[in-house]
Amino acid sequence: MEIKSIQTKSILIQSKLPDSDFVINPYIGCRYGCTYCYASFMGRFVEKKVKDWGNYIFIKENAPEILKKDLKKLKNKGKGKSILLSSVTDPYQGVEAKYKLTRKCIEILLDWGFEGTLGILTKSNLVLRDMDLLTLFKNAEVGLTVTSTDDDISKYFEKYAPPASQRLDTLKKLNAGRIKTYAFVGPLLPHFVAEKYKLDMLFKAIYETGTKDLYIEHINLSKYIIERLKRELPGLNKNIMEKFYISQDKNYRDKLDKIVVNLAKKYEFKIRLENAIYHKNENNR
Ligand code: SF4
User: Locate the Elp3/MiaA/NifB-like radical SAM core domain: which residues (predicted)?
Assistant: First the structure.
C-alpha cells in the first residue's frame, strides 16, 4: 500500500455530475478498492494503472489551504450552488482518521460562511466524527452508499470498505442526529432482476434507518471496469458474469427500473433525479 503526500494546485473543481456544481477530492486513490469503481481511471493522473486502484493513496496535503483560495470562485457565499465531497475518492476512508483533510475542508467552508449545499458521499462511519460541524451548515446532507444488506456481498465487491450493516447503522445515527441523509444505491447489482426480494430487503433496511431519499445508479460497465472485475473476481461464477453483461441491455434496465419504482412507492422514497442514473458507454445497448 503506497501512501504519499502531494501538493495540489486546485481543489474546488467544477463538476459535470448532474446534481453537483463543484467537487472536492482531498485524496487521489481509494483504499476501499471496490471492484466496480469507475474512479479507477484516476490513476492516469499519477502514473498508476487501473489495476493499481485500491493500492495507493495520494494525500493532497495542502488541500485546506488551496480551498481557501479556490473559494474566491464562488459568488454570494455559494448561495444556490452545491459542493460534493467526494466524487472520485472516499472522503472518510481510513487515512482521513489521521490526516483530517475532509474535516479541515469542511471547517474552511464553515468559517467562510458557505451558504450553498454541502453534500458528502461515503461508505464510512467515520463521517459520524464530523457531525458536530455538519449540523452547523444551513444545507448539509450525507449520503451512504449501500448496495446490499449482505455483509458478505459488500465484502466481495467492496473489499476494504466498511460492511453494509455498518453503513446502514451510520445512516440511522445521522438521522437521529437530524442530519439530512440519502442512500446511494449504486451500482444496482445485476442479480436484482432475478432476485427482486433482495432489492426489497435493501430498500426496507434503508427505510428502517429513517432515510427518505435515494439516488439509484445502474452499473457502469466501461471496458476498463469489465477488465478490472475479471481480474479482481477471478473465481466469479460464469453465470454471474453473464448477468453483468445482460445488465447493459436496455430491456434489463427497463425491468430493473420498474422494480425500483415500485419499491420506492412501497417505502415512500423520493428518487433523486427522478430515475436511476445510467452511464452510456461502448457496452450499453
Ligand atoms: S468507495 Fe467509492 S471511490 Fe472508493 S473504491 Fe469504492 S466506489 Fe471507488
Answer: 20-247
User: Three cell numbers at 116?
Assistant: 450553498
Which mutation among 50, 85, 90 tests ligand 1's pocket best, with the greatest number of atoms within 8 A of CB? 90
Residue from 117, 92, 97 nearest 26 by CA: 92
Over residues 126-145, mean pLDDT:
97
Q: Is 167 in the pocket of ligand 1 (CB under 6 A)?
A: no
What are the tens digits of pLDDT across the range 171-194?
A: 999 999 999 999 999 999 877 777
Q: How far apart (Å, rounded) are the C-alpha atoms in residues 50 and 225? A: 9
30 CB less than 6 Å from ligand 1? Answer: yes
Residue 14 CA: distances (Å) to CA of 11, 18, 91, 143, 252:
10, 12, 17, 20, 33
For 202-206, what is the mean pLDDT? 97
Instruction: Report which protein residue has its CA nearest ligand 1's atom 8.
Output: 37
Q: Are strands 56-60 and 82-85 parallel, antiparallel or unpaired?
A: unpaired
Strand positions, DSSP E, 65-198: 82-85, 117-122, 139-145, 180-185
Q: Which residue among 24, 28, 32 is best mutated to probe the pocket of ligand 1, counting the most ligand atoms within 8 A of its Cβ?
A: 32
The CA 227 to ligand 1 mean position distance, Å, reads 17
**19 or 89: which carries more pLDDT confidence?**
89
Q: Tell me the average pLDDT across 256-277.
A: 91
Q: What local confidence, expressed as pLDDT, does residue 285 receive? A: 43
Coil, strand, or helix at residue 211? coil
Q: Which CATH class is domain 2-271?
A: alpha beta
Is the sign of the CA dihedral 200, 205, 210, 212 positive or negative? Answer: negative
Q: Is the CB of 92 under 6 A from ligand 1?
A: no
